[in-house]
Amino acid sequence: MSSLTVVSPAVRTAAPVSRNLLRGVGAVLTRTVAIGALALIWEIFPRLGVVDAVFLPPLSEVLSAWWDLLVSGELWSHTSASLARSAAGFGLAVLIAVPLGLLIGWYTPVANLLNPLLEVFRNTAALAILPVFVLILGLGETSKVAIILYGCTWPILLNTVSGVRTVDPLLIKSARSLGLGPLRLFQKVVLPAAVPTIFTGIRLAGAASILILIAAEMVGAKAGLGYLINYAQYNFAVADMYAGIITISAIGLVVNQLLIVTERRFSTWRTN
Questions:
Q1: CA–CA distance, 164 with 171 (Å, rounded to integer)
Q2: Alpha carbons 3 and 255: distance in angstroms, whole number
């Protein structure tokens, strides 16, 4: 006679959880190893003379300079100035570009009206027209926030339009067959389906807001991470310059992770 082995529900539930945990730990270890290898190379190569330590100091010296800037309060002063400008431009871009993109993607007459203008401006790089913003708005905060707004608008706008237009037609037909009107159809079907694509544009804009800001702060700014990097370069404080660059990279990683968490919050309906 053969005996049957009964597996409890708790055991069946624990197995996928364990696999997911191991997968997550493996991913973290892989990323840690990659970052650790880069840090090790950065520390060793300048000391061995593989690269000139004058232009690329060992990582330990850069971290020491970063700590000195932090303790003195100078790093926070520059970082807070940059974050305020970046957040203002990025936030305005989200508030303007998402509704406009939904409108263009959903209503054909609006798309026909605005598409020529979109084609003109979408191919104009933000940094290429930075002098125009400076001439019109001056060297103050307004021009910096405006150039970030301009640069962040396009990835959000274009991805929002694409997200609305690429919704599965079968979903729309099924919803209409159930008697949903245009407004409910947009609210219950189109908008949720477009959320992942919209957040792709928002994440691209989040990275762009920092990069554009750094370039803008190198022109006429008296505070900010871009100013710090530029000032350190002119004064040959190379370790301080790399400390500013590391700070920018860290901010970019944090912003990206925050946007990923926000996207998951708005996409809870999606299956994993």
A1: 12
A2: 56
- Reference 150, options 171, 129, 169, 180; nearest CA is 129
How far is Cα 248 from Cα 190, in angstroms, rounded to an integer?
A: 36
What pLDDT, in 10s, does the model give residues 226-260? 889 988 988 888 999 999 999 988 888 888 888 88
- The model carries a pTM of 0.76
C-alpha–C-alpha distance, residues 243 and 40, integer Å: 17
Residue 160's Cβ-side half-sphere holds a number of Cα atoms within 13 Å equal to 23
C-alpha distances out from residue 186 to 103, 167, 182, Å: 11, 11, 6
Measured distance CA(175)–CA(120) in Å, rounded: 36
How many Å apart are CA 66 and CA 56, to the nearest integer?
15
Sign of torsion, CA 195 196 200 203? positive
* Token couple for 271: 């299956």
